[in-house]
Amino acid sequence: MQSFEWVDFQFPTRTYVQRNSTHNMGTLIRDLGERPFVFSIQEEIRSEDEYQILLTGLKKQMSGCIIYDEFHSLPSYDQMDSASYFLRRSGADIIIAIGGRHTFQVARSLAMLARNEVYAGELKQKRFPLKKAPMPVVCIPTGLTIGEESSPDMFGYDSSTGDFFYHRDHRLYPEAILVDPNLVSNPSRNELVRQGMAVIAASVESILSRKSNEITGSLSLKAIELVVRSINTLMTDQANQGARYNLAVASVVCGMAASSTALGLSYSIAQSVHLVTGMDFYSALNILLPHVMEYNLTSSASKYVQIARALEQDIHDISIIEAAIKAVEGVRKLYLDLNVAQRLSDFEIAKSTLGEIAELAAEYPLIKNTPRDMERNEIETILITAY
């Protein structure tokens, strides 16, 4: 009797993608909660004007909005504890997170902290799942986020101690995601290139994840195809709204896949580079991608063939390994065509910090998703190669 292999995929989140919907998002959310806690991190609000339009629409459609924008950047544990205490006492029944990746990560953490009697500094050692379900969260991205608005992950980092926590809980899937392509794909061409390449990097990570399957792989490949097609269009027509819309959709589709597979080594190292040095996360992710792809090439060659095809590489009449190499070459060719930085040293990062970055990355649970087993020394070798 032939065995049956289960495909593990779930994405329970309502997803809305609509142009020029910023002012009207309150109408989509008002049935999800009565007293919203509107949370944002200031450095991830790209346009103050758009942010105020969004807030005005929410206040018009939902009574008793509580605006919490006290954090300029990723908060410490003490700051998170203060915010969760305020949230718990506020009487809010839903969190509306507006911003980027850190905003969504912290919002999900607050959703869990507010319902459970636990402090942020205790989360690393806590057994999951916690007893009480988190508060519902709605995510509204203000830029391309490699789909982190879709994730059921929670994350926190305390720069004073270097301690962090990371947990994944299916109850943290957002209630809804609201995307206005005109809002998220409005930055300059260079910013869109940086973020678009990061969507490709995250999609490749999702494909290479040990939890990848036919459904998530198809979604990730579609995200790569959308970015490649859209970026090429924007090279000759920077105002092309169709291309910008496709980039917004690619980010959402990338997130749908990654929310099921989780990301891996490139993401873990890039996060560590960002936390240790302050370097832009997306730039670090883009630089690390081809080096991590080379590291995993022989263990996932058949997946690389699909990636090469999505990158519009010619793989006719060549071996699987040769086609896999074409995938790495395809990424590097895109970088050259788009003038994307390819070295960590371009960002004035001290080489002496690479060991500290490797140490932090080695603790990140997501490196276990990498096709090959990974140790700290190997992470440092990848960093040196990328330097």
UniProtKB/TrEMBL annotation:
It holds the Pfam family ADH_Fe_C. The keyword Oxidoreductase applies. Signal peptide: none annotated. It comes from the Bacteria. GO terms for molecular function: alcohol dehydrogenase (NAD+) activity; metal ion binding. Gene3D superfamilies: 3.40.50.1970, Dehydroquinate synthase-like - alpha domain. InterPro entries: ADH_Fe/GldA, ADH_Fe_C, Alcohol_dehydrogenase_Fe. This is Iron-containing alcohol dehydrogenase.
